[in-house]
Design goal:
- Helix content is 33%, strand content 27%.
- By secondary structure, the chain is α/β, with parallel strands linked by helices.
- The strands form two sheets. Strands 3-5-4-11-12-13-10-14 form an eight-stranded mixed β-sheet.
- A hairpin with a 4-residue loop joins strand 8 and strand 9.
- The longest helix has 26 residues.
- InterPro entries: FAD-bd, FAD/NAD-bd_sf, PheA/TfdB_FAD_monoxygenase.
Amino acid sequence: MSIAEDRETPAVPAVRTEVEVAIVGAGLAGTVLALSLARAGRKVALVDPHRIHHDEFRAEKTRAEQMGLFEKLGLGPVFRSLVTPMTDLHVFRFGHLFERKQAWEYAFSYTPLVNGLRSALPPQVPLTVGKVAEVFTGPDRQRLVLTDGSVIEARLLVVATGYSEAVRRAIGVERIEESKAHSLTMGFDFAISPQEFGLQSLTFYGRRVADRIAFLTIFRIGERVRANMFVYRTVADPWVRAFRENPQKMLLELMPEIAERCGNFAVASEVEVRQVSLTTTQGHRRDGVVFIGDAFATTCPAQGDGIHRVLTDVDCLTTHIPAWFATPGMAADKICAFYDDPVKIAADERAMRASIYARRITTETGLEWRLRRLRNNTARHLMIFARRFREAGKPSDARPGVTGVAFDHSDEAGQELPAGPPLGT
């Protein structure tokens, strides 16, 4: 199977390498898998066109659940060294402070994160810089031919090429669009310093259906104050163009109640955007090759499930590989054990379900969805009222920011709210 792409100048002399696992793509999924397999003593080849990962904007925050998976894979210390942790989270709804909670979240820029993980690769797993020209897969051995003539042979091939289609097409799999241009992630810096910002994280949920805003979240990455906003629009939408031209003006109109906390929304960078479609893969159950991360499926990053899917794929795959290698061959019946793993299925279904629900509860105007929003928002208004009532009777120096039970960000990400709020402390 041949791949017709622009070819780069060979980075290394043509060689022939034999390994147990060949990984194509050294983004987050491929690099984490290579690190995990190296820790298990596997012989691995990691192939990517670029020694240094290119600038790439993606959602820039994750949760304690994902940190738990990094720890399980033995990569917790590496990950912690590359992120900014935060625990003081402030959530705004309806123009008011709805919740203040203590929970671990971690902020990062995707490119430095990937490059930092690459730098942790052990000497026995060097990054092979090159493009794949041909791919041959089968029930026993897999073969990659790079554009410089180098050959890599392996028992198992793992495709972790993200959105790139070249290797996937050469193998013969098809990406199915479940929801085209499903959501848009926007990222930008605020001019305010972290010291002035003070709070570690703010999240503001959109007020009006017509705005098509899931939420804006503001947080620190090192010495920057960063914002990610998730909207259900396309890059070509006039609203998006207007926002990119004058984000400060539009933010002041959308959420004036938190302007003072963010330096009056003075923006210190261009507005980066990333369009995301919901996709799945067809024709992937085949001999010798596994697709992981965004090379297998893509979901909306607003719910934070993208990294969760990647790490779950790596965790499941590293669990199955020892049994696969214990017997000859690498036929599709072995490979299918990965795709049929209940843990993987649950993670993929959760991410897709949350992506679809979050958009519909935010944007749909049919009676069913209007009633759902009414129920959810009535519960939240009652919770705000209950909190204020409780705090009214407390001395001012004894009042916490917010008390009582409150919902986390998953409210809009596939979780139905209870019919009424718990009003007790």
